């Protein structure tokens, strides 16, 4: 098997927790931090660390506001994040196709 596709995987996205975050955000315009945390079963600290990594890569935008006088943090994919995620999924699909017996 050709190892080239594996070497092209986006290491920022490919980590299990970040891949899950990107997947959820790709399916929704934006999600509250607490909704991500609860759906993924992560701690606040773990989710914050992953979101920070994705934000530093330019893939996730974080917005802080208030809802009913309570702080609300929401996350969404940036255009670069949507493109990077789509490319990552395409590469994973290519790897799956290459690994199937002929």
Plain-language structure description:
- The structure is a single chain.
- The protein has one domain: Winged helix-like DNA-binding domain superfamily/Winged helix DNA-binding domain (Arc Repressor Mutant, subunit A, Orthogonal Bundle).
- 60% of the residues lie in helices and 18% in strands.
- The chain has six helices and three strands.
- A hairpin with a 2-residue loop joins strand 2 (60-67) and strand 3 (70-77).
Low-confidence stretches: none
Instruction: Order the strands across the largest sheet as they lie in space.
Output: 1-3-2
Helix content range of the residues, please?
Answer: 55-70%
* CATH H-level homologous superfamily name: Winged helix-like DNA-binding domain superfamily/Winged helix DNA-binding domain
Helix count from the secondary structure assignment: 6
Kindly report the CATH topology. Arc Repressor Mutant, subunit A
**What is the terminal separation in angstroms?**
12 Å
Give average pLDDT, whole number: 93
* Major sheet size, sense and barrel closure: 3 strands, antiparallel
Secondary structural class: alpha+beta
The CATH architecture term is Orthogonal Bundle
Q: Domain count, please report it.
A: 1
Q: How many β-strands, per DSSP?
A: 3
Shape: elongated
Task: Tell me the name of the CATH class.
Answer: Mainly Alpha
Order of helices and strands: HHHEHHEEH
Radius of gyration: 15 Å
Fraction of residues in β-strands: 15-25%
């Amino acid at each position: 098997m050709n190892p080239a596709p594996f070497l092209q995987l986006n290491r920022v996205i490919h980590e299990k927790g970040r891949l899950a975050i990107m997947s959820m955000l790709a399916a929704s315009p934006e999600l509250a931090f607490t909704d991500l945390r609860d759906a993924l079963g992560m701690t606040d600290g773990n989710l914050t660390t992953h979101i920070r990594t994705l934000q530093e890569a330019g893939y996730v935008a974080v917005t802080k506001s208030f809802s009913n006088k309570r702080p609300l943090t929401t996350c969404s994919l940036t255009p670069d994040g949507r493109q990077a995620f789509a490319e990552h999924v395409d590469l994973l699909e290519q790897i799956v196709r290459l690994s199937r017996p002929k």
